[in-house]
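tokens incoming
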């Protein structure tokens, strides 16, 4: 018997567009971030199960000790890590895009150390105190250091502008760190107050959220619409001018937002390197070079990285904890070396 029924052809699988891939990656990263948030709140010297963490968050009980630990210590600390990680992730991607340098990072280029240097000077000679005063000092220091590193890096005969900029940043960071040490060790009171802040950590820093949050949120909101501009700048200056973009003004605006985010993060917790570097490359690996997607994803990955590093730092030793800046360096240093040794550096 001959089958005369019409042949039903199998429809081709839907083509995954760049938009659908970006949406999937951002959604997945948000789910991972939610899991890291729960782990950051639940893990520490006092173990609190994930189920109890969720129950306390949904129904706070002021009388229970676990609720007190969560709402007065771990939740503010986690929220601070979320804010700082997102700011560093966005700052790293913006710096890489505006300098066309895949090795750019606020810590690697010495911008964070420059911000820290002006904060120390303000404390020593201007009697500045409080997170808001630290922020304005950090903003000035980050801006001046960025300009200094750019001028030195673009005039260094290092074979390429990529290597020249990194060498200039490392040299400036080393000088700034040495000056900070010389200034701080001369004053025991200042040394005691800056001992923890200058290392880059979240412990005891939750109280700065209220004062730093407006600057960090403003920087993130200013960064989000820059994806299209960064895509056009990545096509080259001539093409960007042909599309009506004022190249000099656009690059200056992007750099200003990156410096703002770096200053807010540094004023909050001190210098923390490699978060922006790793987050930007992970985001680009997941969604490609389209900055409309890689920019928000870099913010999310930066928050995941910083919170995961902070949580791991609480667990690696039995008594006490390791600063988050040390933990990010453990991850970021091998990543930076691997990236620098690649002959085909990732295009930004």
């Amino acid at each position: 018997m001959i089958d005369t029924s019409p042949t039903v052809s199998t429809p081709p699988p839907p083509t995954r567009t760049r938009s659908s891939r970006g949406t999937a990656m951002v959604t997945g990263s948000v789910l991972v971030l939610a899991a890291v948030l729960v782990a950051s709140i639940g893990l520490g010297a006092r173990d609190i199960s994930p189920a109890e963490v969720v129950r306390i968050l949904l129904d706070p009980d002021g009388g229970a000790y676990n609720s007190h630990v969560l709402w007065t210590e771990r939740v503010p600390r986690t929220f601070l890590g979320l804010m700082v990680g997102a700011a560093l992730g966005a700052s790293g991607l913006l710096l890489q895009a505006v300098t066309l340098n895949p090795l750019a990072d606020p810590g690697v280029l010495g911008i964070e150390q420059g911000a820290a240097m002006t904060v120390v000077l303000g404390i020593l000679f201007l009697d500045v105190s409080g997170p808001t005063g630290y922020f304005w000092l950090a903003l000035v220091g980050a801006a001046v250091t960025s300009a200094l590193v750019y001028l030195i890096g673009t005039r260094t005969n290092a074979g390429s502008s990529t290597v020249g900029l990194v060498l200039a940043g490392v040299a400036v960071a080393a000088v700034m760190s040495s000056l900070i040490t010389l200034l701080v060790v001369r004053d025991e009171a200042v040394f005691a107050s800056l001992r923890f802040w200058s290392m880059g950590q979240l412990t005891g820093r939750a109280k700065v959220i209220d004062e730093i949050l407006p600057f960090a949120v403003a920087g993130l909101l200013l960064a989000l619409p820059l994806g299209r501009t960064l895509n056009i700048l990545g096509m080259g200056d001539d093409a960007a001018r042909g599309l009506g973009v004022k190249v000099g003004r656009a690059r200056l605006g992007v750099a200003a937002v990156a410096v703002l985010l770096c200053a807010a993060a540094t004023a909050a917790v001190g210098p923390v390197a490699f978060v922006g570097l790793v987050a930007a490359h992970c985001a680009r690996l997941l969604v490609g070079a389209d900055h409309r997607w890689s920019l928000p994803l870099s913010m999310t990955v930066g928050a995941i990285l910083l919170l995961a590093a902070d949580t791991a730092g609480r667990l690696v030793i039995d008594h006490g904890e390791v600063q988050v800046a040390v933990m990010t360096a453990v991850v970021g240093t091998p990543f930076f070396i691997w990236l620098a040794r690649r002959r085909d550096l990732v295009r930004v």
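note: The radius of gyration is 22 Å.
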